[in-house]
């Protein structure tokens, strides 16, 4: 089991009319990273945030900005998100065409590189990437929307990837995203996840509830 669990609230569930204030509120409430879901209406059936919004949010927190790119093509936008202030850039192999090249591109920008696996994508996708990446993200819902139910088969994938990471001896975070709440968070942690993305469960109840929500997700 992972020793210290990081909480990365997904701002997809924040009040978009007050995004700067919302980011400050989760920062003050004790989150570890700020998870930003970028969707293009093509790779996933929803449209959200671009580099201009990431840049606008940058002054509102000193915590790592964890940018989950659900866009295709993705390579053409990496420089813009890096320049906007992203710290971690996470990409789907299916966004194509060459995931290894995309990872190299992210590293050349001086950013942490993450690879994200959809629920139907097997762990073996990582076999020839594990030596080059800083983060693996296991999707526990199909990407596109917040508020979906946790797909329990992904716990086995988390367990398999935890073994793969431990065997590699490298410093790689294992993140899970989708349907994380007070019930599923401990399950994901027990399976070996060490970063939990949570949108609905963080923002539920408004700003006065954020600190308590984050503490409970962490298992405190
Ligand atoms: C889904 C996004 C998630 C989503 C999580 O495509 O990647 O980050 O916002 O939302 P909840 O925590 O509500 O399932
Ligand atoms: Zn996400």
Keywords:
220 residues, alpha/beta, TIM Barrel, 8 helices, binds zinc ion
CATH superfamily: Aldolase class I
Query: Strand order across the biggest sheet?
Result: 1-8-7-6-5-4-3-2
Cα Rg: 16 Å
The average pLDDT score comes to 97
Helix content: 25-40%
Bound molecules: D-xylitol-5-phosphate, zinc ion
Distance between the termini: 16 Å
Strand fraction equals 15-25%
CATH class: Alpha Beta
Q: Any idea how many domains?
A: 1
Given helix and strand content, the structural type is alpha/beta
Shape: globular
Q: What's the story with the biggest beta sheet?
A: 8 strands, parallel
Characterization of the model:
There is one protein chain. With 220 residues, the chain is α/β, with parallel strands linked by helices. The chain has a single domain, classed as TIM Barrel (Alpha-Beta Barrel), CATH 3.20.20. The chain is built from eight helices and eight strands, in the order βαβαβαβαββαβαβαα. It has helices at residues 19-28, 51-57, 78-84, 99-108, 154-168, 184-191, 200-203, 210-218; strands at 6-9, 34-39, 65-70, 88-91, 112-117, 135-139, 173-177, 195-198. β4 (88-91), α4 (99-108) and β5 (112-117) form a beta-alpha-beta unit. α2 packs parallel to α3 (78-84). The longest helix is centred in the last third of the chain and has 15 residues, at 154-168. The mean pLDDT is 97.
